[in-house]
Amino acid sequence: NVGSCSLLMLAAGLRVAAFEPVERNRLHLKTSAAQNPSRMRERLALLPYGLGSKSRSAFMVSQEGNTGNSHVVDRPGVDISDFADSAVNKMARSNEVVIR
To answer: What backbone torsions phi and psi does residue 53 show, to the nearest 5 degrees?
Structure first.
């Protein structure tokens, strides 16, 4: 996940709010954005949490070699050992987010 959709919107002159709770994915997007002109980077708000129906901490997992496919696991009985990467990340309720 290198933020290709975010970069396309920035190139079109739009302001972008990118919600990325997974640290590795945020780093990829920051690296991709850094390779573009500063006028594009200035329109990017990269927020370190996901969006959900309520504010909470959530357990996120991804398969080996595919952190772009990270997803929340909140069902009882899911064996997280089946996943290569896992972490607790912040989730925010969308109507509680203010972007300036």
So the answer is: -75, -15
**Could you tell me the sign of the dihedral formed by the alpha carbons of 14, 18, 23, 25, in that order?**
negative
Tokens of 3: 């933020």
Which among 87, 89, 85 has a CA at the least distance from the CA of 57?
Answer: 89
**CA 75, CA 77: separation in Å to the nearest integer?**
6
pTM for the whole structure:
0.74
Structure-model confidence comparison of residues 63 and 93, the more confident one:
93
pLDDT in tens, 72-89: 777 656 666 665 566 667
Tokens of 68: 């772009």
**Position 28, amino acid:** H
